[in-house]
Specification:
This protein is mostly helical and 262 residues long. The C terminus is likely disordered. Among the domains are: 85 residues, Orthogonal Bundle (Cytochrome Bc1 Complex, Chain D, domain 2), CATH 1.10.760; 82 residues, Cytochrome c-like domain (Cytochrome Bc1 Complex, Chain D, domain 2, Orthogonal Bundle), CATH 1.10.760.10. The radius of gyration is 28 Å and the shape is elongated. It is built from 11 helices and no strands. Helix 2 crosses helix 6 and helix 10 packs across helix 11. It is 39% helix and 0% strand. It binds heme C (2 copies). The site of one heme C has 22 residues, from helix 3, helix 5 and helix 10.
């Protein structure tokens, strides 16, 4: 090959391989470090969609793609819950400082992405009289039971009666898995993805007040069973005090000593 042929051959090779030497990875072949990802859609899909639903709706946990929710919640609370998790619920903490995978920049990318994708311009709750996101009053459970009867029972069933068409929200296991903020968020912002009304829609023409929501929450949490997940109330101590150990008859044995109490 003379120099001209060599040049022609190598430019042909470069043309065929798109200016890359064969075998050398291209920029977009390199897998990014997980901590360098700041795309909201990638982070959301990877870490959140499993519980909060694809596109922030239809999941088991809070409807994040709800403009009323986005208007209600402040950035600080979002950072706190995403970073450190929500005590008393199944929401895990995702910040590295809480043992999770996300850097502070990634937590911010999630907060800003949620606002941009699912919020609306301006504050859509301004002037609507929505109760505040965080409770500040002390709950009165007795009044809360009345709020439940007036605002919730028509869809969820009266306390102690058959569940209503929208399912039983006084179920002991459900109440054990959710906390006060979840009830508050659900009742104020609603869950348009599953048909839960916002604070204005429970009793048409009578929006719930801050006190109503706080009292209702206190009453619902007071309905938590002492021993969640157990089909029968069981008042017997789990362990016998030392020195009083007795042989345990099998559950439901003929002598009846371990029969469940009705
Ligand atoms: C293992 C399931 C799970 C995963 C994964 C998860 N969450 Fe949650 N999240 C929950 C639960 C449960 C709650 C409590 C509220 C409820 O029960 O709906 C919650 C609550 C929240 C809240 C507070 C809701 C409120 O009441 O204001 C935010 C915000 C939130 N999650 C965002 C996220 C984001 C962003 C991600 C991804 C980084 C994520 N979650 C991943 C289960 C999860
Ligand atoms: C107009 C009917 C209606 C009223 C009134 C109503 N709900 Fe619901 N609620 C629903 C429906 C529908 C669902 C979704 C049920 C399902 O997915 O199975 C729901 C779901 C819920 C959930 C579960 C949310 C979740 O994240 O899974 C809670 C908690 C709840 N409601 C509490 C309340 C409380 C408390 C009140 C009273 C302030 C109330 N609801 C009033 C219709 C209603």
């Amino acid at each position: 090959m003379n120099p001209f042929q060599r040049l022609a051959a190598s430019s042909l090779l470069l043309a065929l391989t798109g200016c890359h030497l064969p075998g050398r990875p291209k920029a977009d072949d390199v897998v990014p470090r997980p901590t360098s990802i700041t795309s909201f859609s990638v982070l959301y899909k990877q870490y959140c969609a499993g519980c909060h639903g694809a596109n922030g709706q239809g999941g088991a946990a809070t409807n994040l793609a709800n403009p009323e929710y986005e208007a209600l919640v402040d950035d600080g609370s979002l950072r706190e819950y995403i970073g450190n998790g929500e005590h008393g619920s199944l929401m895990p903490g995702f910040a590295q400082s809480a043992g999770g995978p996300l850097t502070p920049v990634q937590v911010d990318a999630l907060v800003h992405g949620m606002r941009a994708e699912w919020g609306r311009q301006g504050n859509i709750l301004a002037g609507q009289g929505a109760p505040p996101y965080k409770a500040t009053l002390v709950g009165n459970p007795q009044h809360g039971g009345q709020v439940y009867a007036g605002a919730c029972a028509r869809c969820h069933g009266a306390a102690g009666a058959q569940p209503g068409p929208a399912g039983n929200v006084l179920d002991g296991s459900l109440l054990t898995l959710i906390n006060a903020q979840t009830i508050r968020t659900t009742v104020i912002a609603g869950r348009p993805d599953i048909g839960q009304p916002d604070w204005r829609g429970d009793i048409p023409g009578h929006p719930l007040t801050d006190a109503d929501v706080t009292d209702l929450t206190a009453w619902m949490l007071a309905q938590r069973p002492a021993n969640p997940g157990q089909p029968y109330p069981n008042n017997q101590p789990m362990t016998q005090p030392a020195g009083e150990a007795q042989p345990q008859a099998p559950f439901g044995a003929a002598n009846g000593t371990r029969r469940p109490q009705q």
